[in-house]
Write a structure and sequence with these properties.
Strand order of the largest sheet: 1-10-6-12-4-3
Number of strands: 29
Radius of gyration: 28 Å
Number of helices: 14
Strand content: 15-25%
Largest sheet: 6 strands, antiparallel
Bound molecules: calcium ion
Shape: globular
Distance between the termini: 83 Å
């Protein structure tokens, strides 16, 4: 066997041009590629079980294609090569490359047509230091390649082995590149014994617990077709209740055969309760009236951690690991996207980062602000304990204003700043969004992002969204800060007029560097804006727009999304004093919706008041469940019927662990919680120098459309909807966090904390 030169290549920046082909990797003249060696740093070298994980693929626009495991090989079909080598790649991460160690790289490869690949071992993020690379021309014949290098740099705990194969590396397209027996050998590396797989829980509960006054139903996965006995034990192991299950049967959403154990009658507060059936135990949980109090606070503190333009500082960060310098100060002079038809700059600093990325999107910011302000309005109308000034430990704690409103205002001020100034084209419209020119890598803390950022063109959806939220803000802040309230109202009415003059300005559905948030139906935004403006001003013109909208009478099918916003208008009308006639009518529609959601919850094995869409679960499914729960909570407020509140807790029970994966989708809340949300700063899994997520962040949850390379690589095709989930930072379609998802989590947790005792308020 012939080994090539020892080649550690220092700090080679990722050049956009093709390194000229040279024999830096050589065809080995025999021997085997010994996959699965104990000195192999990689996992899954051979692809022989039909899965590619932990290998994943990345296609960066305009790179396009797909990856599959076929006949024991990992094959990448490249339809569009993109601009750069790395616009098409497959890679494995999560390894440490150690200083002074000698590495051998070996793999088999072939291609359907002549093309070149560029494997590299290097840092997965900036500055992308490469420890080794090779440029390898491929042909139709499957051949064995081998090279070796010595690690000259300090230990790299963020290393990856990536095969770049896009941009100028390609020849004629389409082309398929197949890899097999990929080995990265280090004689000093010895793989530890594999961790034993975690046993699947079969007795599922809310890992936080249950309210004394509410329904308490555990889910048991059992093939038994007749009722089975269950026991509830206290922390000392004493049986405090027992009974027999109700057989629910085969459940499509989870793929499980399900029983329910109802221990609602147990209302003795305590911790360490355990539900037992068929010899298996649940995670321990509490029964107490204030179990969601910490969650209600931390779910709101998520927004402080997401602030842009200001440092996240102690003591507000709670722990030094979450402190960071201000990000994106340059948003204070945000310019329009070149060629987009405007030439000014806006001070659009501040606001919240949207999600795992650091974009700022008006339509998603709007729904999140609305939900926070509605939490306040609902609490006031319901006579529940009003949110207080100093409950969130934020810089505005102690300023005399409820912290919930301080936090909402931080984003509302940004939304106002996105409005086109007077005298400019499209004056009064709102820019759709502000984000980076290209996607940044994981990890990238906000202050480390050096990408240019631009204002994207105004849209009717963003403008009506601004009109709605600014109108709501005007009435919420009317007593607290009349000057700010006036500013909100002026912005809202300007936006309304501008949207009427430009009723069909739609954001495009594709863009790089940020989410598109495209929406071609703005009739719902129009209804929502009209409702908020009417409640705040009482003007006939807005009332007319409400009652003439098709959304005024259409049955409500579920909670709001950033794209489907009408129900927010309905909720505001149902809470407001402004118009008793409209209030009664919308309350009736909300209660009817809650009845439908209760029926759905009762038909689900895991009791979720959400049916999915055409049998599948969408991106952010947990937020759909929680936004539906808001409708159930309001129905409880309006009627006092306990069944609606039990529907609310059923949704939260599912999110907090009473689901087939026995996983709490909220960081820090539960025995077995989400660990690795998709986030550019809370990126500990990608780089141990970055923190884990703070407590109280909600993962989007199962998405049966498998919309990212990581879940696609996980071999999950055909998964039951509630199981289509991966707790990995790379799984942005199932494990991202977002402001519009944490907002309903905060709403629901606060509702169950302040109304836990009871009966209907605001009847
Ligand atoms: Ca193989
Ligand atoms: Ca305050
Ligand atoms: Ca819409």
């Amino acid at each position: 066997m012939w080994r090539s030169r020892n080649s550690a290549i220092a700090s080679l920046a990722l050049a956009a041009c093709l390194v000229p082909p040279k024999p830096s990797a050589h065809v080995a003249s025999g021997g085997h590629a010994s996959a699965g060696d104990e000195h192999d740093v990689l996992e899954n070298s051979g692809f022989d079980d039909g899965k590619s994980l932990p290998w994943t693929s990345v296609f960066s626009e305009p790179g396009r294609g797909k990856v599959s495991v076929d006949g024991g090989e990992l094959c990448t079909e490249i339809d569009s090569a993109g601009k750069n080598n790395w616009d098409v790649q497959v890679r494995q991460r999560g390894m440490t490359i150690r200083k002074g160690h000698h590495y051998t790289v070996r793999f088999r490869a072939r291609a359907s047509a002549p093309t070149t690949i560029r494997p590299k071992v290097g840092m997965q993020g900036a500055p992308y230091t490469e420890h080794w690379f090779a440029v390898v021309p491929l042909g139709a014949e499957r051949r064995l390649y081998e090279d070796a290098f010595t690690m000259d740099h300090d230990d790299d705990a963020t290393a990856e082995l990536a095969f770049h194969m896009g941009g100028p590396l390609t020849g004629r397209l389409p082309v398929t590149v197949c890899l097999d027996d990929v080995v990265l050998e280090d004689p000093e590396f010895v793989r530890g014994p594999a961790a034993p797989p975690e046993p699947e829980k079969r007795v599922l509960v809310d890992q936080i617990g249950y309210l004394p006054a509410g329904a308490k139903i555990g889910v048991i996965r059992s093939e038994a077709v007749t009722p089975i006995p269950w026991e509830l034990r206290d922390r000392d192991g004493k049986v405090v209740a027992h009974g027999e299950t109700t057989v629910i049967g085969q459940d499509a959403a989870s793929g499980d055969h399900v029983h329910h154990a109802d221990f609602t009658r147990v209302d003795e507060p305590g911790e360490g309760y355990v539900l037992v059936a068929e010899g298996e135990s649940s995670y321990p949980f509490a029964i107490a009236p204030d179990i969601y109090r910490g969650l209600a606070r931390d779910a709101l503190r998520f927004f402080y951690h997401s602030r842009s333009g200001v440092p996240i500082a102690m003591p507000y960060a709670q722990d030094k690991q979450w402190a960071r310098p201000a990000g994106h100060a340059r948003d204070s002079h945000a310019r329009c996207l070149p060629g987009s038809g405007c030439d000014y700059a806006l001070d659009a600093s501040g606001g919240w980062y949207d999600a795992g990325d650091q974009g700022k999107y008006v339509v998603n910011g709007g729904i999140a602000v609305w939900t926070l302000l509605d939490q306040y309005e609902r609490a006031r109308r319901a006579g529940a304990r009003a949110p207080a000034d100093s409950e969130l430990n934020i810089p505005e704690s102690g300023n005399g204003v409820p912290d919930l409103l301080d936090e909402a205002r931080f984003e509302l001020a940004f939304l106002l700043a996105m409005q086109v100034p007077d005298g400019k084209p499209l004056a009064g419209m709102a820019h759709h969004k502000l984000h980076d020119e290209s996607w940044t890598a994981i990890p990238t803390a906000p202050h480390e992002d050096k990408q240019p950022r631009y204002l994207y063109p105004p849209s009717t959806a963003a403008t009506l969204n601004l009109a709605a939220v600014a109108a709501q803000g005007a009435r919420v802040f009317e007593q607290l800060d009349p000057v700010f309230a006036q500013k909100c109202l002026r912005a809202a009415e300007r936006a309304w007029v501008a949207a009427a003059a430009h009723p069909a300005l739609y954001a495009p559905d594709v863009v790089k560097g940020g989410g598109p948030y495209d929406d071609r139906d703005v009739s719902d935004e129009q209804y929502w804006a009209a409702a908020e403006l009417y409640i705040t001003t009482g003007k006939d013109i807005y009332r007319a727009a409400v009652v003439h909208s098709p959304h005024h009478t259409r049955p409500i099918t579920g909670g709001m999304t950033w794209k489907d916003t009408a129900v927010m208008g309905a909720i505001s009308l149902a809470l407001a004093e402004r118009d008793p006639e409209l209030r009664a009518a919308t309350r009736a529609r909300i209660v009817a919706a809650a009845d439908r959601l209760l029926a759905i919850s009762r038909a689900q094995g895991y009791r979720l008041p959400f049916a999915g869409e055409n049998g599948g679960y969408p991106w952010g499914s947990n937020s759909f469940a929680l936004n539906n729960a808001i409708l159930l909570a309001l129905a409880h407020d309006f009627t006092g019927a306990a069944k609606y509140r039990d529907g609310v807790t059923a949704a939260l029970d599912y999110v907090l662990g009473e689901n087939p994966l026995a996983r709490s989708y909220v960081t820090g809340y539960g025995s077995r919680t989400v660990q690795n949300p998709h986030h550019r700063f809370w990126a500990h899994q990608a780089d141990p120098a970055y923190p884990n997520a703070p407590p109280g962040a909600l993962a989007g949850g199962p998405d049966s459309h498998l919309e990212d390379p990581y879940v696609q690589a996980a071999g999950m095709k055909g998964c039951a909807p509630e199981r289509c989930y991966q707790d990995n930072i790379e799984s942005y379609s199932t494990n991202e966090v977002a402001i519009n998802w944490n907002a309903p989590l905060a709403w629901i947790a606060a509702y169950l904390t302040t109304s836990a005792g009871g009966g209907g308020a605001n009847r």
